[in-house]
Write a structure and sequence with these properties.
With 405 residues, the chain is α/β, with parallel strands linked by helices. The chain is built from twelve helices and 18 strands. Strands 1, 11, 12, 13, 14, 15, 16, 17 and 18 form a nine-stranded mixed β-sheet that branches. Strands 2-3-4-5-6-8-9-10 form an eight-stranded parallel barrel, surrounded by four helices. Helix 2 runs parallel beside helix 9 and helix 5 crosses helix 6. The longest helix is centred in the middle third of the chain and has 19 residues.
Length: 405
Amino acid sequence: MSEVAQRFGTPCYVYSTETIATNYRAYRDALGHLPHEVHYSVKANGSLGILSLLANLGAGFDIVSGGELFRVLKAGGDPAKVVFSGVGKTAAELEYALRSGIGSFNCESQEEVELLDKIAGQLEARPVVALRVNPDISTETHPYIATGLRDHKFGIPFKAAERIYRDAERFPHLRFESISCHIGSQIFDTGVFFEVLEKVMALVERLRGAGVFICQLDLGGGLGVSYRRDENAPSIAEYAAGLANAVEGKDLRLLIEPGRSIVGPAGILLTQVVYRKIAESKEFIVVDAAMNDLIRPALYQSHHEIIPVVDRNLEVLNADVVGPVCETGDFLARDRRMPTVDTGDLLAVCTAGAYGFVQASNYNARPRAAEVLVEGSKAKLIRERESYEDLIRGETIDGDSQSAS
């Protein structure tokens, strides 16, 4: 990491090829001979280098915007192995996805179904559609990333979804062959997944009994990862094998959409100590990474382990690790006990491969960080650090067509 910092600067996101591949294969292999596809959730980390890596491993992709579809296609992903999720797809996005020939759509309202049917008719297409059902099941996770309760914006209640399926002839340009369900993210209690599966399987049987043959089941993602030293994340292999056993013999093709559990543990945010500041009541470690680089601690009050790249075995200190952004909420850790570090030292902010760079911004006119992918002893740059010129790209002054620069 010292070499990476010297070559590419800080702050910098660094990802492990081996860890990403290992986690993807754990899902794929555990599902075994069951008909299935593992669709990586692009919103977790949409960098082209990572998408290309997963595409070469055979992954499909779960997208939630037209921009994510564009990224997948640019990275060499197979459009036939793309599922389009999300609650607010626009007409332009639906048309783009249809023209691209994606595999299926997860629809989240009757109005969306009606719009998709209309556009598919205009394009003489007939895509596979799943209704995303909302099981009204609570999960122990942060409320911002829970999606399976009736007061959340996601999905369609079971009864309403069943009515739409039974009335499928109203939508002649759609093939209602699938059901989708996703209850949230960072879930440690795998039992809740199987509780949801039981409810969805009952719906499958009712629909089949009514002549609507469902042949595909999309169970989303959401498996948690360890952010703290004392956390034990669920086993990918055990979870996926449990799903395969539960669906075995049901004449169903299984889709899953993991994101965080594939890339989260594979990444760190590499940052350098700029200053040590001692106030009356506490000490601050000021680093060159900030909330615009990694917003999770400020947004979700989330914990990331922070460790020195070179541990000099000095005494432990208690400090806030903060960035340069002009906000009191700009912190990576508060009241953190950690080895003593000095100005110029490098720190690794761990488990930053998911929802890190992808949520980065240019707040305070800060260029976004570089991204590096490591394979064995080789490190390659997969995203250049932004420049000041990049910050004003596309802007104009008084409508002038020339760049503001």
